[in-house]
Amino acid sequence: MALWTRKSVNVVNHVVSRVGFLGMINQSSWPHSFYRKHPISDACARNLKNPVTDFVNTPAHFPFRRFESTKAETQSDTLHDFDANQQVLDFPGGKVTFSSELRFISGSPEERVHCYRVLDDNGQIITGSTYVQVNKEVALKMYSDMVTLQMMDTIFYEAQRQGRVSFYLTTVGEEAINIASAAALTIDDLIFPQYREPGVLLWRGFTLQEFANQCFGNKADYGKGRQMPIHYGSNKHNYFTVSSTIATQIPHAVGAAYSLKMDKRDACVVTYFGDGGTSEGDFHAALNFAAVRDAPVIFICRNNGWAISTPTSDQFRSDGVVVRGQAYGIRSIRVDGNDALALYSAVHTARNIAIREHRPILIEALTYRVGHHSTSDDSTKYRPAEEIEWWRLARDPVTRFRKWIESNDWWNAEVESELRNSVRKQMLQAIQVAEKVEKPPIADVFTDVYDVPPSNLVEQEKLLRETIKRYPKDYPSDVPV
Amino acid sequence: MLGILRQKVGAGSSSAMILGQSLQRIRPAASGLRNYASAAKEMTVRDALNSALDEEMSADPKVFLMGEEVGEYQGAYKISKGLLDKYGPERVLDTPITEAGFTGIGVGAAYYGLKPIIEFMTFNFSMQARVPPRSSHSAIDHIINSAAKSNYMSAGQINVPLVFRGPNGAAAGVGAQHSQCYAAWFASCPGLKVLSPYSSEDARGLLKAAIRDPDPVVFLENELLYGESFPVSAEALDSSFCLPIGKAKIEREGKDVTITAFSKMVGYALKAADILAKEGISAEVINLRSIRPLDRATINASVRKTNRLVTVEEGFPQHGVGAEICTSVIEESFGYLDAPVERISGADVPMPYAANLERMAVPQVEDIVRGAKRACYRAVPLAATA
Ligand SMILES: Cc1ncc(C[n+]2csc(CCOP(=O)(O)OP(=O)(O)O)c2C)c(N)n1
Ligand SMILES: [Mg+2]
Fold it and tell me: Which domains does chain B have, with CATH numbers?
């Protein structure tokens, strides 16, 4: 934040009164739409100066901004009335200070945007930190769910190696982002996930059996066995089905947020995506639209350093993702993604702002993808094993959080082993059951293409059934006809 | 430049607007394509679409319109005229120029309870595309990968009631990047419904059906028809009016040859039928209305009666709508065919700009007349002349 203040001071220092470029612009040739832009709101301008305090104190601010022709006329007049001795230009979007210095804004800041954290590496609260209190009950559920997530990943990963499921993808290293963000939300908040956020579903009560049913694509899977493993979705949990195409969920989230806003609901939308996802046009379109339309949506970027084998240095040259939020006029924060308390506090506060003020928020969580990208990947081919080990051991978010709850006397080794035994048993049971449940019936090939199947699909289904009846040996016996 | 462009565009095209060069509107000259008895009330396709939007927005507060220039400017083609004033900026949204963005945003809004109508300035912009090696990522990505597939992939948990609409196909004098017909593209994707109106009655009835439908609908309009007037019945003017999706309309009954067409080509087919009638050939003209689902039953019943088929479309021939219709007839009515199927389509080239070449690149009435005559053995088949 120091960065901000220093920059604005710089600009003010270099103000001079001479007008340069303006004379060259023929005002009448400017497109009409130029005057339609709205001045930066006061709340927003204040926030630029001191984002931290405003996070907590900004009054509810949500006027519907609509262009009025009278306003536009006033604005165009001020352009004409421009006084050469003044040092600022009243311009659509707000006042702009002049400078006689020929200077380009640097592409990289002198100092990178700071990273908010609450727990130090030993799981102790850093003195003087501002954070939202987490009570014992919530803290213990957070910890248990992080452990469960880690164990679920280990066991499903093994099941894939044994050939029992076709594909899997772990969340290892990103447990805090998953669980702490979910803990700071309510079940009414809509989730538009990428694919590395199953912990949000877990927090909301999706059972290990339900996870297993999806991975095994059986009859009980809410997706009727139609998608590859880990593409979870559940209406009941307000968790929209995972979309394989990177970043498509980001504009979807903004659309849903727009819907919530029109309904005046006391909820927001939360969408997750990776560092790689921010290179897609969808990310940019979604941020811009959310900003312009004041959509109550929280963008959570898991900057885990890698997009399959592409390091972030090949993904962008900006100071990560947080500065992009600012560029689109969105309040943004960078958080230690391996600090569950910091994430909880950031998401909790973001939710309040999103709902009370109807505006988008961007959170960049710095973390690391400790596992391979997926079971189709061997990441030691493109990154040093020591790097992985350092993040896995020294920066493990689960261990850090455990140290904190232990220092509160809320947890001990005995409860820890009870938890682990119980989760392991449940997992093995879930896999056994999921494997035995029947596969989805033939009818499910044809349902849901449309709300009601059209005649050509009805015909196709009839034809398929007749063919199976005629040549039963050519079809797998475990498919219920 | 502006003047030249406007002249080239000629009577009635407002395509210049999309190119960002003309803000002035020229009212299309009344088309001389059809003559009607003056008794019935007439309505332009533009007013038909506008009134359908208005009525559905008024009937259902979940319906909203989003796109470039739909609000303040009232639509590049004035289809959304008056709607911003009536329904306010929350329901008539001007978007930034990011087709992929607002298409995705519309899909998200439909995922969660709203019924968006997404207007593309032209369907060419629905392609707004960057195509990385693995997956196409663009507005069409959201139509195909999100809208069309979500209901299926979520096993019915996420349905996507939305309409993508805008002018499709060749306009006049706007070149390759504004003149492609995408009917076959969208119609090849399960999960989508694809409609293409011809007359004002079609426009009203089909757009209302599209908005009320629980599935995603691609609604392909034609810029050159917007200003054209058609008679409309009292029934079609009623706010409850709605046409069934998946049903074709027999525009003109005949017994010698079946001509299928959609959108602007229906008018051409009807004109061809007039000419053919003078030569003693009775042509049956089918207005497809719905490209997906395709009304195979109506098409096949007609071919079984006439035993001859001419398909007409403005799009490219390969894998086109005509190809699909031809297959359907070969599969279901092969034994009834008395002549090879004639396929009239756009030339297999990107649209040229020069007016003389442009005319050669899209089907003309005389092409349809000649096709029908060949099918009736009243002209030498093309193959024989080669
Ligand atoms: C549109 C699209 N392009 C490419 C891919 C292939 N792909 C799958 S995951 C992935 C990397 C994404 O990285 P990131 O967003 O950082 O998420 P992470 O895997 O690190 O959690 C890529 C390129 C895809 N699924 N969709
Ligand atoms: Mg990544």
Answer: 2-237 (3.40.50.970), 249-385 (3.40.50.920)
